[in-house]
């Protein structure tokens, strides 16, 4: 389990692989400082927002630690509603369904199945505007599933020394930009 990938890193990696290292370095501090950022939105809204709405239901599990042996992934699920066999990942605000959000749900899905839970549906929920997004299961979406597996492979093969950022728009939107020596911004 030494080289296990954190489920949140799937989102970080797609935004920018370098951001994984900053995210680890700053830990939860950044969550408090940048609650509304799309980038950190990838870390989830689990622990801070509206937990009691779900946790009082008897058939609902929240914030469960999970592990997926097949892909060597670790993390937490947000909400599993047993009587609906539904896995939900809440974000503070979803402006766009990024691939990284979907991959986080896939990782939770595979973990839950390995752990013996039945999952029939997965969805993202945007808290601020109260919108939900049904996501196809990996077996219903082969293209997305392939991208998910490729992303995991890329994370495992990633060489930070040879990485060159080519998209300045990402740096413009990056909360770690002031501290980053790979930034493409000049001032
Ligand atoms: S500033 Fe640019 S290169 Fe650095 S972590 Fe952010 S997006 Fe990546």
Description of the structure:
This protein has helices spanning 7-15, 17-26, 29-33, 38-41, 52-55, 99-114, 142-157, 168-172, and strands at 5-6, 60-62, 65-68, 73-76, 79-81, 86-91, 121-126, 131-135. It has 187 residues and is an alpha/beta fold. The protein has one domain (5-179): Lambda Exonuclease, Chain A (Alpha-Beta Complex). It has a 5-stranded mixed sheet, covered by helices on one side. A 3-stranded mixed sheet has the order 1-4-3. Helix 1 (7-15) crosses helix 2 and helix 1 (7-15) runs antiparallel to helix 6. The N and C termini lie far apart (41 Å). Residues 32-36 have low confidence and may be disordered. The site of iron/sulfur cluster has 12 residues, from helix 2 and helix 8.
CATH architecture: Alpha-Beta Complex
Number of domains: 1
Give the overall silhouette.
globular
Helical residue percent band? 25-40%
Radius of gyration: 16 Å
Q: Element order, helices and strands?
A: EHHHHHEEEEEHEEHH
> Strands of the largest sheet, in order across it?
2-5-6-7-8
Uncertain runs with pLDDT below 50, 5 residues or more?
A: 32-36
Summarize the model shown.
The chain has 187 residues and is α/β, with parallel strands linked by helices. The chain contains eight helices and eight strands; from the N terminus they run βαααααβββββαββαα.
Question: What does the secondary structure layout of this molecule look like, with pairings?
Answer:
Blueprint: E1 5-6, H1 7-15, H2 17-26, H3 29-33, H4 38-41, H5 52-55, E2 60-62, E3 65-68, E4 73-76, E5 79-81, E6 86-91, H6 99-114, E7 121-126, E8 131-135, H7 142-157, H8 168-172
Parallel strand pairs: 1-4, 6-7
Antiparallel strand pairs: 2-5, 3-4, 5-6, 7-8
């Amino acid at each position: 389990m030494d080289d296990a990938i954190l489920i949140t890193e799937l989102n970080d990696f797609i935004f920018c692989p370098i951001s994984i290292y900053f995210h680890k370095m700053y830990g939860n501090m950044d969550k408090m400082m940048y609650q509304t950022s799309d980038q950190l939105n990838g870390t989830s809204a689990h622990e801070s927002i509206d937990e009691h709405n779900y946790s009082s239901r008897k058939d609902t599990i929240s914030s469960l630690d999970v592990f997926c042996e097949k892909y060597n992934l670790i993390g937490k699920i947000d909400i599993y509603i047993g009587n609906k066999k539904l896995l939900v990942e809440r974000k503070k605000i979803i402006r766009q369904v990024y691939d990284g959000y979907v991959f986080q749900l896939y990782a939770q899905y595979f973990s839950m199945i390995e752990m013996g839970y039945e999952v029939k549906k997965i969805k993202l929920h945007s808290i601020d505007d109260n919108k939900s997004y049904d996501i196809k299961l990996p077996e219903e979406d082969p293209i997305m599933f392939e991208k998910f597996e490729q992303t995991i492979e890329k994370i495992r093969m990633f060489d930070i020394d040879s990485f060159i950022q080519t998209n300045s728009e990402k740096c413009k939107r990056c909360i770690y930009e002031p501290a980053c020596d790979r930034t493409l911004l000049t001032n």
